[in-house]
Amino acid sequence: MCGIIGVTGAADALDILLDGLERLEYRGYDSAGVALVSAEAIDRVRIADGTHSVATLRTATEPLAGRSSTGVGHTRWATHGHPTEHNAHPHLDCSGRVALVHNGIIENHLELAMRLSADGHTLASDTDTEVLAHLIEEGLARGEDLTTAVRSTLAVVRGAFALGVMTTDDPELIVASRRISPLIVGVTDTAGYLASDIPAVLDRTRNLIALEDDQVAELRPGSVVVTDAAGAPATTTPLNVEWDVEAAQKGGFPDFMSKEMADQPAAVLDTLRGRRGPDGVIAIDQLDLSHDDLARLTKVVVVACGSSFHAGLVAKYAFERWARIPVEVDIASEFRYRDPVLDATALVVGVSQSGETVDTLQAMRHAREDGARVVVVSNVVDSSMAREADGVLYTRAGPEIGVAATKTVLAQITALELLALHLAQVRGTMTHEQVAVEFDELLRLEGVLAETLARSDDVAAVASGLSHATDFFFLGRHAGYPTALEGALKLKEISYLHAEGYPGGELKHGPLAVIEPGCVVVAVATGGPLKEKMLSNVAEVKSRGATVVLVVEDGDEDGAGVADYTIRVPAARDMQSPIKDIVPLQQLAYHLAVGRGLDVDRPRNLAKTVTVE
Ligand code: M6R
Q1: Closest atom, ligand 1, to C-alpha of 354
Q2: Considering the domain 456-595 in this protein, what is its CATH number?
């Protein structure tokens, strides 16, 4: 996600902004920018130079040194609009009197942009953010001061935001506010600061406050005044920050993997944001496939690698049940070498967090050459796959730094289920009400995931009991099967232990021969149509001496008696269940790896993005 910083009352404001942006670089970004304000003008410089953007910005802003003591800065991780200079923040209003930086997603930006354009505003970017600058411009034109104009703007926007706004009318003031996206403000005797992340300002002040939803902060040199949405004084709680910068970059977590697991509720919710219209219709803005194209499809083929492949396997169940369309899921490195049968009625869906994995990229190219329609589910805006595909469905998990995919996998499954619901609507295979039930269940996952994550200590206790085990089987059936595959991959990847994922019913066709005392079987038995059959498979391994870890939903006692260890998860509908059932398997892998003293963020022999065949 984007990073923001602001400062007022500092002679070296530009340096503070650039240093802060450097401290935000670790999150990954595609472009960066700063704006400095004075009574005469706003000076703005934006650079879209990938991960060199802040360094390039430092050089490009040298002529602005000492120009102003008030400014805002931004590192952008694109969600709406390409990662180009004209989409980089800060954004300005028509008059150039207002500049702002924003982190989050404005869900109703399209309707607001249409209204603003009709009223004569010129929108200069493709972002969801820019509408805010023009709405604030309208407030100022009505005679409101900046704080009031920000408040009246926030009253009409839906979605998530953390923002910093300034105007030439009052050049020592920065107005900050947030809803859902985090924002901190801080002061010293002479300056005021805002930032999306603590590391950006930690070397300037530790006198910090985390704003609550819809609070508005007015920052001036040496002071901060916080009010609520109605303008009444708000109660604030100072943050007690004992972290150093490195710890702060990990959000206080010991490693990126645990931070990214904790990000999962937000990753799922952000991926859903703004994608169901008020009429209940699922809308995927950059899919670029007409209803006719979608209605004509005869099959869907998912191509992907690793964890993204597992997300595709989960999606197969959703596409087939909801949209009643045949689905093949293929390992991308195999797909193009097997002469697949494709034509214009096939939809090939590449699934890739990075959008750069060469096997998936080549598989998608192959499919296009064969005349298929090609879309990609990617977490990186304008990745190679996104640029080449006919359409894109972006996940909004934010940058993922740990090599082991966690939050991006959950976001991928969410996005693919969204696509399946969209297809079901277009093909008329589900009623409006049925789509609403499934979408609402996806929305409910935010809370379900938070609850699941909160049980990490229970999983740690299981891991501690298994600390001497070296052989693991992960079993699942139906959508629990790809869940099992993902659990096994996570364990192999970060703990270097032998692990295999299997469909429970397949055991007796061979693998049962290797089950013996000492072998651990992790069985996903969380509801779904085949839960009872799954429990029979568990009984088979138990009777051969395996140690059984059973993953079951709250209140389910059906498996009592067969399990050596039980991991409980909150209940969910079966199609959405993998999105939360994967979490305890991530936690199990994590705790086993940490117990073995391993670096969970940088496992041996592996790269985050594989760009060689
Ligand atoms: O960027 P991609 O989603 O295309 O990457 C695919 C795989 O390399 C990736 O999922 C890999 O398996 C992960 N490290 C698993 O945690």
Answers
A1: 1
A2: 3.40.50.10490
